[in-house]
Structures
1.
Amino acid sequence: MPSPALAIFRAFLLLASFPGIEKHVVRLVQAAIDWWSGKKIAVIGPTAAGKDSFLARLQNREIPRVHSNSPMGERVKSFRVKLALSHHRVIDITCKGVINIGGETDYRDAPAGWLAVCKDADVIFYVMTIKDLSEKRFLKGRRIREDLDWLMTVMPHLKKDALIHILINKVDEEIESHTDYRAFAVELSKELHALDKAVETVLHPYDSRYTGATLISMKSKPIYTLAINHVLRAVYSAFHETEKRKKAA
Ligand SMILES: Nc1nc2c(ncn2[C@@H]2O[C@H](COP(=O)(O)OP(=O)(O)OP(=O)(O)O)[C@@H](O)[C@H]2O)c(=O)[nH]1
Ligand SMILES: [Mg+2]
């Protein structure tokens, strides 16, 4: 009998192999690693979604066990990140001036809130949970959708080429509550597709800045490691595609 943690990771691998969930994992090309070096990232999202946990993982620390509401505008100094990649490779990424912030809507809309955090970021990570996805909180009038609407209104104030990536956290919890992984995968791929459509609709004409959504678990280190590889590649690929299109135009 495998340990629960291992069973969850195996189930994640199975899910990730389903069409429409994750594209296959390929090696990070050197150009992508170079591109990421020194990038400035911002981490936003609803309260308790796992923003602090993400920052902890990036710094190779364990995640906070209990949730403590982050105060507004708490700044995290720039830190170097040693990211473990597949094929036993490790890369050094410097995240400059990462600013951590709580998730309440008050923080979002305050002058020193989310906008101050996102303003000079190259890549914005929006952290939500898999519950937000399965309960379709990205539909009109609901929390995730309101955040997306907010993002749209601030687009003109962000860095010209700022990219947005969604992290769908706590996938471990949802795996634990399922036994039929095939049915779960079918449902998930539909929801992910609906989320992509919603984001693209809301962000239009900035929709090319959206680099996709990735299932992740800050709690499970192996899932986190696999997912972060995917994220690094997906964001770089989106950037690369946009550049190619610009050149062709
Ligand atoms: N099961 C599970 N729990 C998680 C995961 N990531 C974070 N948590 C837990 O969720 C709670 C909230 O995590 P935080 O990282 O503090 O959330 P936050 O987004 O910084 O919250 P605010 O600062 O209040 O907006 C903590 O108790 C974490 O241990 C995950 O992937 N799986
Ligand atoms: Mg926090």
2.
Amino acid sequence: MEDVSLTAVRRSGGDKIVLAVRARGRGFVSVSAPTRLEGKCPGVSARVRIDNESSEVYYRVSEGPIAAGTETFLAASLPAAMMLGVDLELPGSISPRLSNALPRIQTILRSWVPDSSEIQVHTGPPRAATRVPGHSVACFFSGGVDSFYTLLKHHSEIDRIVLVHGFDLRLEDAPMRAKVSKALRQVAKELGVHLIEVETNVRSLADRYFPWRFYHGAMLASVALLLAPQIRRFYVPASDSYATLVPWGSHPLLDPLWSTEQMELIHDGLEANRLEKIESIALSNIAMRYLRVCFPWTEEGGAYNCGRCEKCVTTMICLRSAGALGRCATFPPQLDLSSIARLPPLDELDQLDIREILRGVERNGRDPLLADAIHAWLARRDPRGITSIPMRVARKLRRIGRRLQKLIPPSRPRLDQGF
Ligand SMILES: [Zn+2]
């Protein structure tokens, strides 16, 4: 292995920390000390230099207080440094709890992304755990199913919701950002919580080095660490359930490891699958007025929910099964079942989710046509080879199986297990 040369530079002025890393002959990464941004909204920025390229990464927050930013930029840069296989030197102090968790965070990320490496993180002396925790409890909130589920579940303690511009909301899409901000301000007002908006360009760095699906948990953590002076507990809404859990950047094994003595990060909502979450939030008229699941860039013209993409149609399937589609103001009032047939074939991960939804739809037993349409969608890519059986026969066999199941004592295996 080639040598690692660590270079720490201190700018004039004393308080400017420069993080500098020389790779194992493969390049050079440096992150300058976070600098406070001027203006109405508080913020921090730092220069990230990789080889000869340098870019400014910033975070702005609609209201403070915010942290100095050392831990924020640690979370923001660690996965990139791992991908480059370079050590990270951080002259500033970080939380002892977070420092102790860094090896485990890296072990998990590296197991998911074998091309990455576990690296050394060099920091200053551990910070004394004397910082006073913030007063608030918050959750990340995009307006989607997982967000509403966690907010409503913990409504008695949550008093802040946090929307991030620059993750799924692209920074350059000003009309969509304005639309979502306006809707979420209304959600906050009607539910009696406070909306905090964060803007960051960190994806311009992150996307170049690490797959977003494994990186986004660290990015959420970077925002939580920035807001730690005001938020003592931060819920991260789960996108999986216990039954569909797969390697993913925001994960119950990973999210809590980004906690500090001051701020606790909690991965929340694994107990419910998508259909169960929608059945739950359908009880809220506010959720039914503002639910937003569509990725803005999937739809030209920037519809709040396009009603046609896979995420929209899957949500509409669940709303229809829950008997709530007509009440959800942000979706068309009816689901054309042929739109399911027009969706792209499901990949392996999405199949897990859709099978869970199908089980719920069949358990409800109110909508066999919907169940058939989902079966047809799944069968197009069924890895067990069910596509070789004519669809009508396959459906009939399933129905017979379900009828037989009712005659069998509960201790016996379910005939439709595995859908
Ligand atoms: Zn859509």
